[in-house]
């Protein structure tokens, strides 16, 4: 699996085109050895051909950092966009896609001391693409988690939960954080409800009753007290996560984007755990 998803690569091509002229794009194509694949009379056509080439082909290209994969070269070029481009929808798509791929853009500013007393200090800015989590730790690839979750939802016919997940992912990729958060709440509640019903809980019961059923009504319990997942008398992991998905207002120091990314990540990891457990139980 490529380290970047299709949306990320298309958005990267759009961002690159936003601050490169046709002539600049010609130079890039020659440098990368893909001038025969990236023609087009309009910017839109060139974006399409550039992103298609990056997605469909495994090509190594020359960059200032050395020889790298074309996908990486495209993204690394895009993240160096000037500030005026960073207000565009394409930039929002790029950053959302990168976060889903497990990357974030880190900007570092370093003050350069003047060589002479009469000179003013200057600031050097560096932009890096950094992994949010270690890439050598298993089970942390969010795209793989989403793929496995969708397969499990399909296998067991959890169509309502799957619909909420698709809505959440689409909203996240558009940078619509509030919509993504709302759909993730619905996804979390929905698959727990569907699991409870499959294990024997009456469908007419409310969501709280269904979680109580998973924690003690069904034997053996689906939610494990030994792991602090559920306790009918106090808030444990499952209810705490439900509460975290329903915060009240914003909080200083935490951006909407950061919060939405956290919710997406923890939702996918939690869903994979519980859906795997359900799958093993009913097989």
| Number of E strands | 4
Terminus-to-terminus distance: 28 Å
Walk across the major sheet and give the strand order. 1-2
Structural class: mainly alpha
Give the tally of structural domains: 2
Shape: elongated
Report the sheet with the most strands, covering strand number, pairing sense and barrel closure: 2 strands, antiparallel
**Rounded radius of gyration (Å):** 23 Å
Q: So how many helices?
A: 11
Share of residues in strands: 5-15%
> Which spans of ≥5 residues are poorly predicted at pLDDT below 50?
249-253
Mean of pLDDT: 87
One letter per element, helices H and strands E, the order comes to HHHEEHHEEHHHHHH
Helix content: 55-70%
What does this structure look like?
The protein has 283 residues and is mainly alpha-helical. The protein folds into 2 domains: 6-101; 142-282. Helix content is 55%, strand content 10%. The protein has helices at residues 6-18, 22-32, 43-56, 70-78, 89-101, 142-155, 159-173, 177-198, 207-217, 237-244, 256-282; strands spanning 60-63, 66-69, 103-112, 122-131.
Notable features of this structure?
mainly alpha; 2 domains; 283 residues; two-stranded antiparallel sheet; 55% helix; single chain; 10% strand
How do you describe this structure in short?
By secondary structure, the chain is mainly alpha-helical. The protein has helices at residues 6-18, 22-32, 43-56, 70-78, 89-101, 142-155, 159-173, 177-198, 207-217, 237-244, 256-282; strands spanning 60-63, 66-69, 103-112, 122-131. The longest helix is centred in the C-terminal third of the chain and has 27 residues, at 256-282.
């Amino acid at each position: 699996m490529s380290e970047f998803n299709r949306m990320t690569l298309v958005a990267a091509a759009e961002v690159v085109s936003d601050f490169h002229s046709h002539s600049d794009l010609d130079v890039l194509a020659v440098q990368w050895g893909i001038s025969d694949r990236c023609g087009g009379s309009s910017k839109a056509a060139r974006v399409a051909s550039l992103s298609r080439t990056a997605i469909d082909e495994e090509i190594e290209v020359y960059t200032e950092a050395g020889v790298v994969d074309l996908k990486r070269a495209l993204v690394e070029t895009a993240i160096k966009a000037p500030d005026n481009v960073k207000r565009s929808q394409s930039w929002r798509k790029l950053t959302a896609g990168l976060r889903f791929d497990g990357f974030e853009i880190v900007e570092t500013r370093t003050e350069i001391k003047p060589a002479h007393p009469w000179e003013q200090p200057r600031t050097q800015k560096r932009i890096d693409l950094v992994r949010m989590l270690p890439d050598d730790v298993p089970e942390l690839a969010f795209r793989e988690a989403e793929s496995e979750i969708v397969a499990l939802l399909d296998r067991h016919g959890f169509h309502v939960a799957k619909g909420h997940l698709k809505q959440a992912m689409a909203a996240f990729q558009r940078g619509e954080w509030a919509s993504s958060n709302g759909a993730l709440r619905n996804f979390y509640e929905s698959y727990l409800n569907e699991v409870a019903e499959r294990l024997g809980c009456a469908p007419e019961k409310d969501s709280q009753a269904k979680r109580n059923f998973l924690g003690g009504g069904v034997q053996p319990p689906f939610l494990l007290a030994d792991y602090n997942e559920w306790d009918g008398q106090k808030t444990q992991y499952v209810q705490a996560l439900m509460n975290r998905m329903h915060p009240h207002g914003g909080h200083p120091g935490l951006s909407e984007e950061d919060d939405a990314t956290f919710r997406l990540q923890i939702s996918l990891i939690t869903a994979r755990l519980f859906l795997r457990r359900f799958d093993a139980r009913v097989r």
